[in-house]
Amino acid sequence: MAAKYNLDHAAFRENLLNAPWMVQLMRRRALAGKAYAESVAPDAPPYGEGYIASFEVEAGRDGGIHHDRAHARLRNTSDHAREVEWGTERQAASHVLISAMDVMGGWEA
User: Do residues 61 and 15 make contact, with C-beta atoms less than 8 angstroms apart?
Assistant: First the structure.
C-alpha cells in the first residue's frame, strides 16, 4: 500500500524557510563573506579610502519573491563601491563581492 504525502506549505515555510535558525545560518554565511571581502578589498587610491569599512550585513525573515523566507545580504555602501567591483577605464575590476559569494555559498560557514 502506497502512502501519500501532502506538503503543508505554511508549516514548511515557518519551520524551515523562515525559521530563526535559518536566519542565523544565512547571517553567519554573510559574515564569512564579509570577512573574506575585507581581507581582499583594495582600500587605497585610485578608488579612495573607506571601502573596507563600508561592508554591511543584514539578515531577516522577509527575503524571496514573496518576502516570506530567511535571507542575508552583504553589501558595500561606499560611494566608490561600483568602481571597485566593476572597474573603470583606468583601473581593472576587483570583483570583491562577486568572489565573496563563493565563500558565502560554502558549507563551512
Answer: no
**pTM of the entire predicted model:** 0.81
Question: How many structural domains does the chain have?
Answer: 1
> 90 lies in a domain?
yes
pLDDT, one tens digit for every residue, the chain (109 residues): 788 888 887 777 777 788 899 999 999 999 999 999 999 998 766 666 788 999 999 999 998 898 889 999 999 999 889 988 998 888 888 999 999 998 898 655 4
Residue 1 located in a structural domain: no
Inside any domain, residue 4:
no
C-alpha cell at 99: 568572489
DSSP state of 52: G
